[in-house]
């Protein structure tokens, strides 16, 4: 065996119980080296003390402390250390380990130490066939001295609390007893520590040994005995000839000391000190902190502390050593490879290296006890049949069962498979108050117990989603959607819990998102609830959740046309108590319908009639009553008559029946792929939803989407693009456009080309073709992109891009279309900016015209005033010029007021406009403005021509793609494109009109 190689060998042991480890299987080898160095130093002190004078009494606090958290392997480390001590130091006597849990409640720990030492002495005498008080024995004097010392020590024990009578002075009413026995006992009690030192020396002399080694294991876990044991160490185990080893958690030892110290302060004393002596409570807390620190530094010296590290810390600190596991079938793997194998079995293998590495680091950082249990699962997986893989998630849940139950009361529901497992996941997050921090079920929070529970629950989800793809939408809509909805309503989850739990309870009670109900109704109720909340703000006329658009004056009509009916699938409405109705188009409702369809397909074993009936129900347009409360009626909202509340559907509608059939085929062909859904971890799905959500925020801020069809198309592309990008990240495809802002059509067209191209190059990689020769089809993106329900509401050209046909002309036209689509918004935005600038410049030109009139008026007024001075002798001329003067003065004042107002309104224009302009400045500004107006008009004309040509070419390309690919038009998409959406109002830090002109026109 190599010296730098550590191997846990499951062929030798299952490591289920603590036991001494061999050199090659000890995980904490560097800590063991530190431990043995400390022991050797203390052993030399013990030998030195043995040779000192008998009356030389020295007090030493040299306890070796082994610190680590629970399950880190402290007991195994201690047993291994004791085994090495026995082998190396044959003159050291290792006493049996003292476990506080084995000490009776009324028994004092010091008595246990004495009993352990005396037990070793008795064993020695018996082994050497030595009888006590045998004067023929050459060691008679040593035996007698030992026994005399032992008896004196026993007489002094009653002074210790819990030993002897409760009141040692009960018999002190007898004068003779006091003088003879009582005072003797008092003297012995006062020198109990000295007697113990002598007793130890005599015992070691008798046995011809150098020191005793006494070990206390996990005394910090026993609050009743823990502090007593620390006091035993402080008062009595102070001789160098007793080497004390102690294990535990340093934080818990601190709590033991603090508890005992606080008990020294009587409650009434504390009350009087704070109330009457005006002492601050924090003053006492500071005293406790100081006492705790000084006590532990004295008893458990920092230089004698051994801190056991996790496997991860040991791997990083000791890179020269390798850590391997040998399993029962003689397979040997490094710990890193073990956890790669484990993550693959529990559904995390498809994540990108960054996430996988963080998970491996987390697992390697768990306590050794838990890791041993995980290695046991790997051992079972390697040695048992393949059916075991279906049970590994349940066994992971068993390992972390206590962590789960500490955080929730619905632990049993999470243990096993459940069709509504995501509901239980949500309830867990709600109970644990971890919706915002733990929604991705990754062990990345600050709560270590919560982290283990999240990992276990995520593992169970990974196992179940493989055969139940509806859980993907369940997760998105019950967990991710709930989180962002709460935040969009204006509250953070932590604040809700802290300030007003009724808010979140009211939302969930109204929507029932956390119950075992169909999701479509819950999502529609959510829109109704949110609409009610938004209406409370009288300053925002129109606002909706991101991913939901309000329809402008839309009222469903009596129609049985199947195209019309299918268009109702993503539509819903809400009605307030004033009978005002608001209609929405919602991506969330569409996803909820998809979830319910997949759920019922699985429940009814792919029954076409049941699916057809269900779709007939979903195509009904329904509105939902908002929470009853006095609210602000929405301006211009729709108001309907009672007879308009429902639409009668044609149950024989062929398109609905075809959609049912296509959906069933889609599910049957693509929905059962093991490789696809093995990658659908909560972490992966939450990343998708986050990317999707921030994309739809940008879509909703862009008022360029005028119709319900355009909005819904953009929402669906945002979802597909989010899936594609996150899968590309996990498949290490680096060059996709990962922006969440910008024209989603352009981003999607660009990304899908690269995605197809890169996956094609990866076709021959083993990780992709081990299940299929078509890596593209083995993706969640392809599965969703081929969903018949989503295709209904996509632009037909985008649908055609999802075809596998890659003929040259088609690709060429597709790329040309992409360039046009990228250029059009730029030209349109430029034209918009040019027009805005032109409007400002025209206003400046008007100002300059009025300014010229103002200057002319001033000149005329000056001439008239001069005339008045020269006509003092002609009354008729005086009257005439005085009238002209008044007229020019009024004209001057009017122009000055007008020009001043105009100048203020044009303060951001890059021209200096002033009533005190010189002629030269005036001519310069007028010249610049005239030139700029001419230039802008030319640019606007050029852009208009480009836009007209691009739109014409775009239309031709669309027709070409439809014709060549034989794709039908999309009646549902076309119909929704005729329904106008409202302009979404939002509160922004920057006004829409606060536009800064560029330096160059």
Tell me the radius of gyration.
Answer: 43 Å
How would you write the strand order of the largest sheet? 3-4-5-2-6
The overall strand count is: 12
Give the low-confidence spans: 492-500, 631-652, 764-775, 805-809, 904-909, 986-1001
Structural class: mainly alpha
Largest sheet: 5 strands, parallel
Estimate the strand proportion: 5-15%
Average pLDDT confidence is 78
Tell me the overall shape: elongated
> Whole-Å distance between the termini?
77 Å
Fraction of residues in helix: 55-70%
Total of DSSP H or I helical runs spanning 4+ residues = 40
What's the quaternary structure here? single chain
Chain-wise SSE layout:
Blueprint (H helix, E strand, L loop, with lengths): L4 E5 L19 H22 L13 E4 L6 H15 L3 E3 L14 H19 L12 H17 L18 H16 L1 H16 L3 E6 L9 H10 L6 E7 L1 H13 L4 H9 L5 H19 L5 E3 L3 H7 L4 E5 L5 E3 H11 L7 H12 L3 H16 L8 H8 L1 H7 L3 H5 L5 H11 L3 H4 L9 H18 L4 H19 L4 H7 L1 H11 L7 H16 L13 E3 L11 H6 L3 E5 L5 E6 H17 L4 H11 L4 E3 L28 H17 L3 H4 L4 H20 L6 H23 L13 H18 L4 H4 L10 H6 L2 H4 L4 H6 L6 H62 L5 H31 L13 H47 L5 H6 L25
Parallel strand pairs: 1-7, 2-5, 2-6, 3-4, 4-5, 10-12
Antiparallel strand pairs: 7-8, 9-11, 10-11
Helix pairs in contact: 1-2, 3-6, 4-5, 4-6, 8-10, 12-13, 14-15, 15-20, 16-20, 18-21, 21-26, 21-30, 22-23, 24-26, 26-27, 27-28, 30-31, 31-32, 32-37, 37-38, 37-39
